[in-house]
Design brief:
This protein is 76% helix and 0% strand.
């Protein structure tokens, strides 16, 4: 569900739907409850409700903060992995300049296929949460085959050969880490705590009575808006390859890799 929302709606639309919807429902619920039970405006139970709100608010705030920080760290880690993978591919392309023309041409062809497969085949699948190793397997194996079939004949070539092999191994490891990140999502228990907690905390604000309706509406709307915005962050950060705030494949098209995209 979250993937569908992120891939079909802009961040602004999601903000209007989630934050605005939460505020509207909360205000409507508060007004309806106040009309059904006018005695709530007297604030007879405010002491008990205030203590309960404070306790639940503190626990829920800690949970939301933990979830948001965890998801933000995961997004930054994913960006680092993508940048490192693209950098290693670019460095292998530069190292290939030290090899004989036939070896360099074979390695360039394999690397070109790899970056195109990552951006054009694997990236759309990662946005949908179902990445496949097979999309880049052939080109990666091709690069390994070129290096495994080549025997350096000079100390200079041997140095660049060792560097290229080491970086190609790193590319394989980073590809696995990137695909693993694309498959991850917030554990169901934390999803229940994050979104279910809002269903407990927001209705509690309805019970905090104030004599003036305008002040009570403002109080309820403020709490609902803050919770709605926090849930919006959880939604957009949960999937690092989906939505407008997703990790970009741009590193695979920049620097030394730009020539693989030349028309």
């Amino acid at each position: 569900m979250s993937l569908w929302l992120l891939n079909h709606f802009s961040s602004l639309t999601l903000a209007v739907l989630l934050v605005g919807g939460t505020v509207v429902l909360a205000v409507a619920g508060s007004v309806l409850l106040r009309r059904r039970h006018p005695s709530l405006a007297e604030g007879e139970h405010n002491d008990m409700v205030g203590v309960t709100l404070g306790m639940f608010g503190a626990i829920y705030g800690i949970i939301l903060a933990f979830v948001i920080v965890t998801l933000w760290t995961q997004l930054e880690s994913t960006q680092t992995i993508v940048a490192a993978e693209a950098t290693d591919v670019a460095l292998i392309a530069r190292d290939a300049a030290a090899f004989p023309p036939d070896v360099r041409a074979g390695l360039d062809a394999a690397l070109s296929d790899y970056v195109h497969a990552v951006v054009e085949q694997q990236w759309p699948r990662m946005r949908e949460g179902r990445p496949q190793y097979g999309a880049t397997e052939r080109s990666l194996v091709g690069a390994f085959d070129v290096l495994q079939a080549y025997d350096p004949v000079s100390p200079r070539e041997e140095v660049f050969y060792e560097e290229a092999v080491a970086r190609l191994n790193d590319v394989a490891a980073q590809r696995r880490a990137r695909i693993t990140m694309a498959e991850q999502e917030l554990p169901p228990l934390l999803q229940v705590l994050a979104f279910g907690g809002a269903l407990v905390l927001v209705p509690l604000t309805f019970l905090y009575g104030m004599r003036r309706l305008r002040i009570q509406v403002l109080f309820v709307a403020s709490v609902a808006g803050l919770i709605g915005f926090s849930l919006l962050l959880v939604l957009v950060l949960d999937r690092p390859f989906a939505g407008e705030l997703s990790v970009s494949p741009a590193p695979y098209k920049e620097g030394a890799l730009a020539r693989y995209w030349a028309p």
